[in-house]
Design brief:
The structure is a single chain. With about 400 residues, the chain is α/β, with parallel strands linked by helices. The chain has two domains: about 240 residues, Aspartate Aminotransferase, domain 2, CATH 3.40.640; about 100 residues, Aspartate Aminotransferase, domain 1 (Alpha-Beta Complex), CATH 3.90.1150.10. It contains 16 helices and 13 strands. The protein has a seven-stranded mixed sheet with strand order 2-8-7-6-5-3-4, sandwiched between helices. A four-stranded antiparallel sheet has the order 9-10-13-12. Strand 3, helix 6 and strand 4 form a beta-alpha-beta unit. Helix 1 runs antiparallel to helix 12, helix 5 packs parallel to helix 6 and helix 13 crosses helix 16. The longest helix is centred in the C-terminal third of the chain and has 20 residues. The relative contact order is 0.16. The model has no long low-confidence stretch (mean pLDDT about 95).
């Protein structure tokens, strides 16, 4: 059975219609035209560089306006200042390596919370050891998921630890993979009032096109994200946004140095950055460009949806409330943060020992058999990511039946 309700976006989002169309026509272009000079011009200059006859054959490619315009459009989907710039990489881990280098260049002690993604923390720890600096971990996850912290208490706990441990840098997770949403701007502003803050990195992998953390007013030096989850491009890419006056030139200098010395090993990032800096059009090695085009299609869809981020987030929260009500009636127990820290991700846990004894993949398969795609963990725990449109009554009935079946 093909799952008809997709609630697994926190891992990998469904491809949007626009992303499908652009990806399809790009694949046809690659098959019928190949990597000719037309493709090179098209990549950088967009649809205006090719003939109308070619666009008539591949109409969806009219959405492509070139790499520079894709970057500009991606920036517009964040809450960062208008002057922000974007980096695009084939692997998000490479941009996290850049973030770690940027953090430990000026900072002696970087504060992180236990809400962070473990592989990212591992990259940060490697850089800490290399530079012989310090890393301070603040525990907020358990209390947040239990509903024992609101946004002010979370911000105060982080600020207190920052001052007590004499930190001078921050690596914050805007929305954790378990759905806890941190008040980024409040944390940064509170710390800036009483202590030195040299560099701030925000992990927005679960935030970009989902919640939309308030990052206005230059509260982040670097914001990490990806288009393949909540934006819906499907093809994994790494994104990084920057532009703060104090650090913009530093980001670009460290990026160039890291690419030249091989510390960052990402062909797509190198190809785009060197082409923009030196007007080099041919990559040093073969680069997969398909993700750029599906990303453009997803961006176009997001732009058509409009700029009403609060309403879209409100829809996700409303869906979460309905699903929670249905799941609880079947014996599932939520791990529910305070309302001020919630997101469109819902964590539920079964109290049934039979369900808790299942391996994660078996539990996921049980829901899939009932038409529901979600993320499952061991010990009877599941994660559901809410869609941006309100769930219809027939979808809610299917959710109810699914939780009753897997109860």
């Amino acid at each position: 059975m093909v799952a008809s309700i997709y609630l697994d976006t926190a891992r990998l989002g469904k491809m949007t219609p626009g992303a499908q169309d652009v990806h399809h026509d790009f694949s046809r272009l690659a098959g019928e035209v190949g990597a000719s000079i037309q493709l090179t011009d098209f990549l950088w200059q967009g649809h205006e560089s090719v003939s109308q006859a070619l666009l008539d054959r591949f109409p969806s490619l009219e959405a492509w306006k070139g790499v520079a315009q894709l970057k500009k459009a991606l920036c517009s989907l964040t809450t960062l200042p208008n002057r922000s710039r974007a980096l695009i990489a084939g692997r998000s881990a490479q941009l996290m390596k850049l973030a770690a280098t940027l953090l430990y260049r000026p900072c002696r002690n970087v504060l992180v919370t236990d809400l962070g993604w473990p592989p990212y923390h591992a990259i940060l720890e490697n850089e800490r050891r290399r530079t012989n600096r310090r890393l301070t971990l603040v525990q907020v996850g358990r209390d947040s998921l239990a509903g024992n912290l609101d946004h002010q208490e979370a911000a105060e706990r982080i600020r207190t630890a920052y001052i007590e441990h004499q930190c001078d840098g921050l690596f914050l997770t805007a929305v954790s993979h378990l759905g806890v949403r941190l008040p980024i701007q409040e944390i940064v502003r509170t710390i800036e009032q009483t202590a030195e803050l040299r560099f701030v990195v925000v992990d927005g992998a679960q935030d970009f096109c989902h919640v939309g953390a308030d990052l206005q007013g230059d509260c982040a030096d670097l914001y990490l994200a990806g288009p393949h989850k909540w934006l819906g491009s499907f093809h994994p890419l790494g994104l990084a946004f920057y532009g703060k006056r104090r650090s913009r030139d530093v980001v670009e200098a460290v990026l160039r140095d890291s690419l030249e010395c091989g510390h960052l090993d990402d062909p797509l990032l190198r190809f785009i950055d060197m082409a923009e800096q030196e007007d080099r059009r041919d990559p040093d090695e073969t680069v997969n460009l398909a993700g750029l085009f599906s990303c453009q299609g997803a961006v176009s869809d997001a732009t058509v949806m409009g700029s009403d981020r609060p309403q879209r987030f409100s829809n996700r929260l409303a869906n979460s409330e309905r699903v929670l009500e249905l799941a609880e009636s079947s014996g599932w127990v939520p791990e529910l943060p305070h309302a001020s820290l919630r997101s469109g991700i819902l964590i539920l846990e079964s109290r049934n020992e039979r369900i808790r004894s299942l391996e994660a993949q078996a539990l996921r398969a049980k829901f899939h058999q009932r038409g529901i795609a979600l993320t499952a963990y061991d010990q009877g725990r599941v994660r559901l990511s809410m869609p941006v449109e309100r769930l219809h009554e027939d979808e809610l009935r299917m959710v109810r039946a699914g939780f009753q079946h897997v109860a």
